[in-house]
Each structure stands twice: as structure tokens, then as C-alpha cells.
Write a structure and sequence with these properties.
It is a single chain. The protein is mainly α. It folds into two domains: about 160 residues, CHAD domain; about 150 residues, CHAD domain (Alpha solenoid). Helices cover about 70% and strands about 0% of the residues. The N terminus is likely disordered.
Length: about 325
């Protein structure tokens, strides 16, 4: 089964990398594969930089950043796929999937717990039963995560990825010279970007009646579009900054909508479990669920609000200025 993707209110991967922390040595004249290798090197180094903090567990941001690095590495392979042979990169993609599956459940529960704690502080609602349940699940997930990080499989992944990044030409796709394909970055960039922009715009016809699942799919398409732009931003014109900001805004809106929906679904299931577990207890000793019921109502209300305001967010995203900024950014290649 594919790893479920939870969008996170803290902007788990929607915050563009700051100017002080971006890949160096990128050039529009590089072969696409070697440009990709530099991008991947940056995010692989980020993964390694946050490994020790993730193991320690004292600061949840370390896990957050390590997980973001795995997602961006996976996205880089997707964006730059035309440059590589599939059979060469498949083992690395499999290893990345294993890393995401190990890190993801702990991070998702961190966010659910933090949000519930915030609500409890703000309202005084009793969510202790819910928090205890999620804390127990988190400890189990963290135990599995640490077992993975200590495993030979993770060590092999790091060694193999290091070798891939440190070997120019490794895994490069060779095209028939009689059937030209864009292999220099500035030649390939417009297609890589507009292909993903088109995939986003293709959803417009269903938005009036879109289900939560369809809006989740749109969010993923927006994320892939943003990744392509961010990976190539070093060789694009200055308007790219506004393009990225608009992409972040629409993705954040869709993310908050999806957060509320998923958390509400999860909470509804837990409420049913709690009621079943406590049905045999005398009424006077059954745990209090009023606080959890109120929290569920709040999540449902947040989902409705985000759904109701999405048409305005979409209208802002597809305005002519966005298309103009995108075209201007690409025109400077």
C-alpha cells in the first residue's frame, strides 16, 4: 500500500528553502542528471544532518526536517525522472519509501498530539483520554522508527545513495542521437514545469463538486508543481519568488482542509472505539467524552470553513498575474 500522505498544519514541506540554505553550484547549462544530483545532494545532506536529532527525540522539528528531506528526495527523482534509467533508481526509491514509512507515523502523531494539546490549553476541554491513546501509539511507532534507523537496511541505503550522488553519470538515461531529447537543464526546465502546472489546471472542471479525496489529489499535484519550480528556482528569473509564494498559499489552504478532514475521520473512529470499550462500565465511572466530542465538532467546522473559502483561494491562484510571473521566470532561462 502507498504511504498515506498527511498534510501538516506546521507546513511540513510547504515552506520553501531559504536563500541561505539552498543548493549551490547549479547552472542552467548542466546536464539534467547532474543538476538533479546536486539538488539531491543538498536534501540527502539535510536528511543526514537531522538523523541524530531524530534519534534523540528531544525536538520534534528534527524529525519534521528529516521527513521533509525524504519527501523532497522522492520528489526530485519524480521531477528529474527523464534523466535516469528506471532500473538504476528503483532500489533507491524503494529505500526512500521505507524511510518515509518509518518516519511518517511518528511525525503524524506528533502533529495530532500538538494540535489537541493546543485546543485543550485554549478551551480547557478534557482530551486526556485521546492524548493518552495517541501517546501510546506514538511510542510504538517511535520504537519501530528507531529499529529501522538502527537496521542494516538503513545503513545500506545511506551507502548506496552516497555512491549514486558521488558518481557523475551513474544511472543516466541514454537517448538515441537520431531521436533528440532535451538533456541540458535549461532545455528541459520549461517542460518539467508546465507539465505539472497543466496537471493542476486539469482539476478545475471537478472543483465545484470535488470530494475530499479529489481535493487531496489536487494538493498532491500542487505539491509536485511547487517541487519542480523550487528545484529549478536557481536558474529561473526573479518572478519565481512570487510563483512559489502563490503555490505555498494554495497548498497551505488545501493542506489545512485535508488536515481537518483526516483528523475528524480519525477522531470519529476513536470515539466509536471508546464508546464500545466503555459500554460495559457503570455510567458513573465511564470516561468523560464531552471534550473529545467538542474537539471533533471544531475539526468538522474547520473543514467546512476551508471548503467554503476554497473557491476564493483557487481564483487567486489561477489569476493572470500568476501565469505571467511563471512565464517571466521561465523566459530568463
Amino acid at each position: 500500500m502507498p504511504e498515506p500522505e498527511l498534510s501538516l498544519p506546521s507546513g511540513d514541506d510547504s515552506k520553501p528553502t531559504s536563500r541561505k540554505k539552498r543548493p549551490r553550484g547549479l547552472s542552467a547549462d548542466l546536464p539534467l542528471a547532474e543538476y538533479a544530483r546536486i539538488v539531491m545532494r543538498f536534501h540527502f545532506d539535510e536528511l543526514l544532518r537531522h538523523e541524530s536529532g531524530t534519534r534523540l527525540g528531544a525536538d520534534s522539528k528534527e524529525l519534521h526536517d528529516m521527513r521533509v528531506a525524504t519527501r523532497r528526495l522522492r520528489a526530485a527523482f519524480e521531477v528529474f525522472a527523464p534523466a535516469f534509467r528506471s532500473r538504476e533508481i528503483k532500489p533507491l526509491l524503494d529505500d526512500l519509501r521505507a524511510a518515509r514509512q518509518a518516519l511518517g507515523p511518528v511525525r503524524d502523531l506528533d502533529v495530532f498530539i500538538e494540535n489537541a494539546q493546543d485546543y485543550q490549553r485554549e478551551t480547557g476541554a478534557d482530551l486526556q483520554l485521546l492524548l493518552n491513546t495517541w501517546q501510546t501509539e506514538r511510542e510504538a511507532a517511535r520504537h519501530k522508527m528507531l529499529a529501522y534507523l538502527d537496521s542494516p537496511a538503513f545503513e545500506t541505503f545511506k551507502t548506496d545513495f552516497e555512491h549514486f550522488l558521488g558518481t557523475p553519470g551513474r544511472g543516466v538515461r541514454r537517448y538515441d542521437p537520431q531521436e533528440p531529447h532535451p538533456q541540458v537543464t535549461w532545455q528541459a526546465a520549461p517542460f518539467l514545469i508546465y507539465q505539472r502546472y497543466s496537471a493542476v489546471l486539469a482539476c478545475e472542471g471537478i472543483l465545484a463538486t470535488a470530494s475530499p479525496e479529489q481535493l487531496h489529489d489536487l494538493r498532491i499535484r500542487c505539491k509536485k508543481f511547487r517541487y519542480a519550480v523550487e528545484f529549478l528556482r536557481e536558474i529561473l528569473g526573479k518572478p519565481v519568488a512570487e510563483v512559489i509564494e502563490d503555490l505555498k498559499t494554495i497548498q497551505d489552504h488545501l493542506g489545512q482542509l485535508n488536515d481537518a478532514f483526516l483528523a475528524g475521520e480519525l477522531l470519529s473512529g476513536l470515539m466509536a472505539e471508546f464508546k464500545t470499550q466503555h459500554r460495559s462500565l457503570p455510567i458513573g465511572v465511564r470516561p468523560e467524552l464531552d471534550g473529545i466530542t467538542a474537539y471533533l465538532a471544531t475539526l468538522n467546522n474547520q473543514h467546512r470553513q476551508q471548503t467554503d473559502t476554497f473557491p476564493q483561494a483557487w481564483a487567486h491562484f489561477i489569476r493572470p498575474e500568476f501565469r505571467q510571473n511563471l512565464a517571466l521566470a521561465i523566459s530568463e532561462l
